[in-house]
Amino acid sequence: MSLTGPSSFHFDSNRRRLRLDPHDRTFFQDPYQAYALLHTAAPSFHWENYGFWCFIGYGAVNKLLRDRRFGREKRDSAADSQGVVGDRSHLKDFDHVEKFSMLELEPPTHTRLRTLVNRAFVSRQVERLRPRIEVLAHELIDRFEPKGEADLIADFATPIPVTIIAEMLGVPSETGPQLLDWSHRIVAMYMHGRNRQSEDSANAASAEFSSFLRDYAGRRRAEPSDDLMSLLLAAEADGTKLSEDELITTAILLLNAGHEATVHQIGNAVKTVLASGFDPAKLFADAENAAKTVEECLRFDAPLHMFTRYAYEDIDLGDGISLQPGDQIGLMLGAANRDPRALASPDTFLPQRSDQKNLSFGAGIHFCIGAPLARLELQVALKVLFDRLPNLRFKKAPIYRDTYHFHGLERLDVKW
User: Fold this and answer.
1) What is the pLDDT of residue 348?
2) What pTM was estimated for this model as a whole?
C-alpha cells in the first residue's frame, strides 16, 4: 500500500511500522491529513519515533483507556512517562512532584486522591462559576476591543482558565504570569525530544512552584477560606487527609491541567468556528446550541492528541501485538475523534451531528476531572466573544505550536 503525507511520513503497511517526526511542521500544523491516511491503512501501528504501539480507532482507544491491565503508574519500568531511561539525579524536584500526582497513580492511591478532589469539580459546584467566567470574558474584551485586533491566545484564551483556577485555589490571580511560566516549563517534560536544558528548567520550576504553594498552604492552615486550597486541607477520605506532598502536587496538577488544555481548546475552537462558514451567532444562540458546538469543537480539533499507558502484565492484543509488563502504548485521542468507522463525515465540522462523541477528556478512571469546568469555560467564553465581536475574522493564518501532544495555537491573530 502506498501512502503519502508529510515529508517525514513513511508507513510500512506489511509490518505496520510508521516513521513520522512529530516535529515535522506539515504534521503538527495539520495532523489530520496523516490520521486520515492511517485510518485507511491500519487501526494500530508501531510508531518508530516513539518506540511503541499506537492505536487510532475510536473503539480501541475507548476500550484501552478503560482496560485495567494498563495504567499510568510506572511499576516495572525503568523508563519515565516519556520512555526515557537514564540518570535522573538532576530531576529530583520534578520527580518528587510527579510521585504524588493522581494522573500518574493507580488505585487505591488514585481513588483516594481523586475522591478528595472530585467534590470541587462536580457540575453543580462548577456551575456557580458561570457569572464569574462571563464577567472575566467581558473584562478581557473591554481591554482589546478598541484596538480592532488582538492575539486571542495571549489576550483571551490564556487569562480565562488560569485566572479561574487560581481564584478557585485561592492563589492571587496577579501571579498568573508566574504560574504560567512554571507550568509551561514543567509540561515541557512530556514533550517528544526534550533535552537537558528543558529538564533542568522543569526541575527548577517544580522546586519554585512547590515552595510557592507550600507558603500559601501554610497561610490557609492558619486562616481557612472559601477556596479549593482550604477544601483540600480539610477534606478527608476513609479517615485520611492529603499529606503535605500530596496537597502540593495536587495543587500543581490542578493549576497545570486547569489551564493548559483549555487555553488550547479555546484557541482551536475559535479557529474552527471562523473557518467553518457557520454563523457564530446561531452556534451560540442559546445554552443548548453552545453546548453542542463546544462538543463538536472538542471532537474536531482536540487539545490533547496522545495519552500513554503502561502494560501491567503480559498482554496479547491480537494483530501481532504482544506486550510485556512495562511496555508503553500510545492512545491517539485526536485521531480517534476522526475515526470514519465511528463517525459519519469525521473530517467535517457539524455542530448538530447526531453521532456526537469524543475522547478529548479521556475515559475510565483517568477521565479529566476538570471536564465540567473546561466545558463551562468554553461555552461561556466563546458565546461572549462572538456576541461582542460579531465581525471577528482572521488577520493572519493561525499557526500551531511545535508541541504535538498538546495541540494548540501559538498565536491567533484576529481583527473585527
Assistant:
1) 98
2) 0.91
Q: In 10 A of CB 343, how many CB atoms?
A: 20
Q: Predicted confidence band at 236 (pLDDT cuts at 50, 70, 90)?
A: low
Q: Are 344 and 296 in contact (CB under 8 A)?
A: no
225: β partners: none
Answer yes or no: is pLDDT of 2 > 60: no
Q: Percent helix, strand, coil in the chain (nearest 5)?
A: 50, 10, 35
Place of cell 471562523: 274
pLDDT-derived band at 1 (thresholds 50, 70, 90) equals very low
3-state secondary structure (DSSP) of residue 265: helix
How many residues are given for the chain? 416
Residue 355 CA to residue 220 CA, distance in Å, equals: 46
Residue 257 near residue 103 (C-beta atoms within 8 A): yes
CATH topology of domain 86-297+348-415: Cytochrome p450 (1.10.630)
Among residues 66, 119, 12, 31, the alpha carbon closest in space to that of 331 is found at: 66
Could you state, in order of their start, the residue ranges of all structural domains in the chain?
86-297+348-415
C-beta separation of 312 from 75 below 8 A: yes
